Amino acid sequence: MKQLCKGLILSILLAVCFVSIQPAETVCAAGIREAVWAGRFYPASRSELEQTIDSLTFQAKQTRVQIPPHKQLKALILPHAGYIYSGLTAAHASLVLRENQFDKVILMGPDHRVGFNNCAISDVDAYETPLGLVSLNKDAAKLRASSDLFQSIPASDRVEHSLEVILPFLQRYLNKFEFIPIVMGRGNARQLAAAIEPLLDKNTLLIVSSDLSHFLPYSEAVERDKKTINMILKLESDKLLKSSNRACGIIPILIALEMAGKYGWGPVLLHYSNSGDTAGGRSQVVGYAAIAFYGDSSMQKHHNHQQINPQLGQALIKLARQTIMERLGLKISGKGSDLVAAALKDDALEVRRGTFVTLKIAGNLRGCIGSLAAKESILDGVKRNAVNAAFHDPRFSPLTVEEIEDVDIEISILTNPQPLEYTNGVDLISKLRVNVDGVILQKGRASATFLPQVWEQLPRPENFLSHLCVKAGLSANAWENTRLKISTYQVQYFEEKK
């Protein structure tokens, strides 16, 4: 299957997950899509529903989350199960939403019960919940009229819950807004993203309604969901496609990641839980996550954060190898050199980004040099750091001709480092994202960095920071009792395929 980040068309055929609970038969009256799942997934009375959401919100407010400064909320991923199961995680939207924050919401959720191609957009005037009516934005009708990808499917209105259960939270937090309800069946994620993208502006919030893994034993679900969340936080669309049972709303998630990569939105995990943590048993659980995406107030494309597709990543690795071989005086085949040269003409590689080149032999480090600042193009950075990693890493002797065949090369492309505000060592640990954040530590002239890949060897934040302090020439516990300057960044990295 071709990968989404290649910019090529891909189709995703998803098995429909059927819900055993039967909804009420009545749905639409006088242009109103009536609440179908009130009294089942959430309380049917206004007062009880308000009390339920307010109680969940109070609990969610106890969670501390670092919100990127000077950034605007762009998108959310929220769960859609019954409130006794996923309501606490969904209520973490209260940490990032406020009254009248957005005029329009694009709400995307998966089809669970009907089975259709592409998307359903209701042709009613409004959705009703016990908290009142939510009017459809005029862009809903425009989207249906502009593309065959979107159509009215009354059967979906009669049974789908993925959008309905999100609305009461939005009504409670945003108060007044209009929305575009999109239920997604089998379809082409990139094609759908292209159709939806023109509707985005600074007054529009994109929301994905999706649960995570379904019906796995508790510990297995936690491990699987952790990996899924990391893929989302790293915008790794291609990895999400390589296995099943990641999320029921996989297509809406892929659409959000497409937008995030294009516009430079940074994801932040607000909360994770599963049904075994709340109201269910632990033999078969369903996972839930609340994830917020932040970006600049404008909707300008951020090429600085654009993902590099895997083919270009492998071309960069070949470039690094060829650069090292040239310094060693080794001959490079003309055909291989020509193929790399053709691949490296892509404009994406002319963008200024920080880069690292890592060399390993039999899994052991043999050299690693890079640049944190985006002072040169990706191409120039890879070539320069390949030479430095091979011949100028002070921890190792220069690489020899005899070693080159045994060397494995890894390329890391960095986002711009951002300062991390924290109050003490405990707060610092709570704010670092394991397997996601690269960390820069500075005190005076002392400084050091660990790439996110180092978390694999040092998964505990305490050990990670202690080793980083030692690398900087500081005491191992300096992070606990010394005020340090901390910055974080993320990477997209590519391992050599031989």
N-to-C span: 21 Å
Supply the number of structural domains: 3
Gyration radius from CA atoms, angstroms? 24 Å
Question: Mean pLDDT, nearest integer?
Answer: 89
CATH class of the largest domain: Alpha Beta
Largest sheet: 9 strands, mixed
Can you describe this structure?
It is a single chain. 31% of the residues lie in helices and 23% in strands. The protein is an alpha+beta fold and 498 residues long. The chain folds into three domains: 4-302, Protocatechuate 4,5-dioxygenase, Chain B (3-Layer(aba) Sandwich), CATH 3.40.830; 308-414, Hypothetical protein ph0010, domain 1 (Glycoprotein, Type 4 Pilin, 2-Layer Sandwich), CATH 3.30.700; 418-493, Hypothetical protein ph0010, domain 2 (Dna Ligase, domain 1). Strands 3, 4, 5, 8, 9, 10, 11, 12 and 13 form a nine-stranded mixed beta sheet that branches. Helix 6 (189-196) packs across helix 9. The two termini are 21 Å apart. Residues 1-26 have low confidence and may be disordered.
